[in-house]
Predict the structure.
Amino acid sequence: MSLNLIDSHCHLDFPEFHGREEEFLAAMRVNGVSSALIAGVTMERMPAVFALVDRFPNLFAAVGVHPDTTDGEDADEERLVSLSQHPKVVAIGETGLDYYRLEGDLEWQRERFRRHIRAALECNKPLIIHTREAASDTLEILEKEGQGRVRGVFHCFTETWDVAQKALALGFHISISGIVTFKKATQVQEVARLVPVDRLLVETDAPYLAPVPHRGRLNHPALVRHVAEEVARLRGMTLEEIAVATTRNFEHLFGIPEHA
């Protein structure tokens, strides 16, 4: 059986990849990675994201403004919904809360998050959630604004199993990144072992967080194979079983025809 993995979160539009996109897509093919989702971080970068997903049929997009973005257009709900009509846009995000880098009154960040949730509900697309040192507020806002109708994924999950259980109870998936391969990442490893297999995704968050044995170098979607291998090892499963499950989960969550 041929391997079919999907990188559920990357940033192939970033400058690190400019002019080398064909090289990295070729590496994906060699490593059994069929598709990747490019998550939005600013409105200003969306044209570059759209150019890539229009050019390559196995790339998909999400539209959003990252929680700690402080410059540029702070998209309103109408703008997000409008951009989500692009045929390759399968989600809203990444969005959420990040209290790690920013201080002071962060109500503007929470209000941005609420707008993204409302946009996701209006266009009936899942959310890609970023949360860092803000799990309690993230879950509270999701529960209140989403009203049990919003779905999506907590990407690059680094929180506790308790937080993961609360996210799962709200109907969300959990995505594991290359951090799971880091020796001291015991909290992430525990979550990777315990998440129900039908709610599990894998990702790179490229160009960041390259997995072992590539740690410290440029990350790219082909390296999601190392993430999947470690998740398989932790769960006592084969790589092929993890690939089948996470690809099925990705296609179901984002409404993509099987092996599109």
